[in-house]
């Protein structure tokens, strides 16, 4: 009896594929490999297949292994990569030259699509809105806010259906009180409209780097500038890796933008 299903069947594909290994059986361990060898790597969650791979997987229960399931995935991508870059930054918030250079690197303000990763910040959503102000003021990036969904009457830049050129990727650990009831509008600060932020609990974003829809959005909607903000960098390790330091789908998508684009 078949106990496992590999979500991507054998075949030829033209883009990175995200693989889930599914089982209806409980209280089992799942192991897999991507090079055709016997499965020995423990499965913690979905992963990316960026190049041709032979996936093998088994379950283990009471020291007994199931039959091996196989998916032979061939990846043939376009030979014309698009421009893309990843910026890892702390400080330099007011540096016009840096913001302009980042936008220039990906083809200018008419072509830039920014995915802002707020994971390291203690104020995730607020730090995203702060960076939005800076890209607008320092690099002249225009944002069509009609493409941004609303949450209870307020624009939500972290929404998965945000189609504008600036997206706050919802991956974080700490909830920011400025996106709830304790808001503070400071007219001397770029974040002068905190009361306009939707009420979001960013601590609910902890597992989102494993979310296939978020990783797919990053690649399929042509985001070409991934901006990783400053703060406590250890929070990236907690969010972007599985417990055995295998890459989450989101980290693989970021790596693809850096290495392939």
Structure characterization notes:
This protein has 261 residues and is α/β, with parallel strands linked by helices. Helices cover 20% and strands 23% of the residues. It contains 5 helices and 16 strands. The protein has helices at residues 96-105, 124-139, 212-220, 234-240, 249-259; strands at 4-6, 11-13, 17-19, 21-23, 29-33, 41-42, 47-49, 53-61, 64-65, 69-75, 85-88, 114-117, 150-151, 154-155, 166-168, 225-228. Strands 2, 5, 6, 8, 9 and 10 form a 6-stranded mixed sheet that branches. Strands 11-16-12-15 form a 4-stranded parallel sheet, sandwiched between helices. A two-stranded antiparallel sheet has the order 1-4. Strand 5 (29-33) and strand 6 (41-42) form a beta hairpin. The longest helix has 16 residues, at 124-139. The mean pLDDT is 90.
How would the blueprint of this fold be written?
Blueprint: E1 4-6, E2 11-13, E3 17-19, E4 21-23, E5 29-33, E6 41-42, E7 47-49, E8 53-61, E9 64-65, E10 69-75, E11 85-88, H1 96-105, E12 114-117, H2 124-139, E13 150-151, E14 154-155, E15 166-168, H3 212-220, E16 225-228, H4 234-240, H5 249-259
Parallel strand pairs: 2-10, 11-16, 12-15, 12-16
Antiparallel strand pairs: 1-4, 3-7, 5-6, 5-8, 8-9, 8-10, 13-14
